[in-house]
Amino acid sequence: MQQKWVALEMAPVGSIRHRVYNLGQQLLMRVKPSEMFLKSIPKETTKVEIVFPSSLNPRLVRRRLRCVATSGAIYHRRYMYGSVALLPFTALFAVLPFPNIPLFWNLFRAHAHWQALKGSERLLFLVSDSIETWKMIAAPDNKDGETVNSSRGDSNVCGASCAWVLCPCRRLGDIIASDTRTGALSNLTISTICITYNIDYAEVLKWRDYKL
């Protein structure tokens, strides 16, 4: 499938094959940014470190992360089954003298939804409130970690015996401080954050500009 996609990309500009490639690129631009995030979570992950501005409530940060994982699992499971169900029908297009783009697209989307589903389940597993869950995936040499929880919400950092670690960052808070009044981050601020934390600038802009 990857070879077929590269062949479409290398087709002469203006040809039907190249137009199909451009159409595929437009469809890819409509993929939810959260899908890329969930797909990037390896199944072998045993701990997640969440860095956020110190001005935010740690409990709300983790609650938001659980919401992303829960909604992602529901969404991608549903659409994975839908893509798989369409495979027999899109396979019928093989009789046409053109590349079977519907079949390739459904295969790609089914695999992408499966990856995102596994990432959602793993993330939800990591940020679970269950202490037994933490014990199952905690590293053997990290059993002496301390857990610090503040009832006021200004510090909620779980130690190494837990699968999630919340890291309030004053530096990150200082970076976004100039944009707090407007309620939106400027391109310069986003660029500074991406450089500081080695994040893909284009992907962050995709998050910000994504329209549901």
Topology:
Blueprint: H1 2-9, H2 16-28, H3 33-39, E1 48-53, H4 58-90, H5 101-126, H6 131-137, E2 148-149, E3 156-157, E4 164-169, H7 170-176, H8 187-197, H9 201-209
Parallel strand pairs: 1-4
Antiparallel strand pairs: 2-3
Helix pairs in contact: 1-2, 3-5, 4-5
Short characterization:
It is built from nine helices and four strands. The strands form two sheets. A two-stranded parallel sheet has the order 1-4. The chain has a two-stranded antiparallel ribbon with strand order 2-3. The chain has helices spanning 2-9, 16-28, 33-39, 58-90, 101-126, 131-137, 170-176, 187-197, 201-209; strands at 48-53, 148-149, 156-157, 164-169.
Structural class, judged by helices and strands?
mainly alpha
Enumerate the strands of the largest sheet in spatial order, edge to edge or round the barrel: 1-4
- Give a quick account of the main beta sheet: strands, pairing sense, barrel closure: 2 strands, parallel
Number of helices: 9
Regions with pLDDT < 50 over 5+ consecutive residues?
133-157
Tell me the strand percentage band: 5-15%
What is the general shape? Answer: globular
Helix content: 55-70%
Encode the helix/strand succession as letters.
HHHEHHHEEEHHH
Mean pLDDT: 78
Number of domain modules: 1
Query: How many β-strand stretches?
Result: 4
CA distance, first residue to last residue: 29 Å
Report the radius of gyration as a whole number of Å: 21 Å
